Amino acid sequence: LSWLKVRDKLNNLVLFNKDTYDKLCKEVPNYELVTPAVMSERLKICRSLSRAAFQEMLHKGLSNLVTKHRAQVIYTKNTEGRVAPTFSKDG
Fold it and tell me: What distance in Å separates the CA atoms of residue 4 and residue 83, rounded to the nearest whole number?
């Protein structure tokens, strides 16, 4: 069974500590395109915590929702306080 690769178990945070929350507030609003998976990987937090952080960022106006699907959510940074255009199925 030498062909099996053993991955190290992730030790991601389930609650924000002061350093991680400060990093979230400073760095994530500057990302061009960000998903919960990207935030989870860069900040070493669990995905449920990254989804909750996105809800807070949306509420504060720090990011804009691009698209929402049951399996994937994509956000962008809020440029100059303007609201990003949202696309609907209506046209």
Answer: 48
Q: Which residues lie across from 45 on neighbouring strands?
A: 13
- The pTM assigned to this predicted structure is 0.73
Question: From CA 76, how far away is CA 67, in angstroms rounded?
Answer: 10
- For the stretch 6-39, pLDDT in tens is 778 889 999 999 999 999 999 999 999 999 999 9
Percent of the chain that is helix, strand, coil (3-state, to 5): 40, 15, 45
- 1.20.1730.10, 1.10.10.10, 3.40.30.10, 3.40.50.720: CATH of 18-77: 1.10.10.10
